[in-house]
Fold this sequence. Notes:
This protein is of the alpha+beta class. 35% of the residues lie in helices and 29% in strands.
Amino acid sequence: MHDEFLCHVTAYGVCGGRRIGVPLGTYRAPTLALALWWLRDRATWIAERLDPSPEAPHVPSRALVPVADTVPDVPALLRTWCADVGRQQLVADELAGGRLIRIAVSDDTTEYELLAESVDALRMQRTLPALVVPVG
């Protein structure tokens, strides 16, 4: 029944004392497999932009500096989530069951959120609570 999925990626931060969301992408996936692939791809995309290789040709010399040990390592959390087969299966099962999934990670300034939901479930306007999947 749940054959199509709407996926979103958003970054949230504070500007002028207000929480502001910046859309980073939306995808209407025609299959569950493509929805999962897109979520992993976007998580990897965020991780690579937050934590690029110092040897990357587009990164100027001495442009990267380490962050404090007290700052959550969002890129590592996202990469770990992408590689965790068990969590991927949990997300797949929840989406296939028509439930909204939300994957969120935060550092000291920004929250990164990946959402996905069945288009059929959206149409049915069901009232089941969302699944929040911890990544850390």
